Amino acid sequence: MSNIQESVFSVHDQEKILDLLKSHNEKAFRYTQIEHAIYKDLIQDWNEVTTLAKPLREILAKNTSFMSLTIHKRMDSEDGQTSKFLLKTHDDKMIECVIMRHLSGRNTLCVSCQAGCPMACVFCATGKLGLIRNLTFAEMVEQFMIAEYALKAEWKELRNVVFMGMGEPFLNYPQVKEAINILTAQKKLDLSSRRVTISSCGIVPGIRKFTEDFPQVSLAISLHAPNDIARSSIMPVDHSYPLKDLMASLDEYCAKTNKRVFYEYIMISGVTDKLEYMQELADLLKGRLAHVNFIPYNPGEGIMGVGHKPTSMIIMKKFQQVLEKAWVPSTIRHTMGDDIAAACGQLALKEEKHDPSKVPDVLEENRQILDSMNN
Question: Per the residue annotation, which of 26, 96, 139, 301 is the catalytic one?
Answer without folding.
Answer: 96
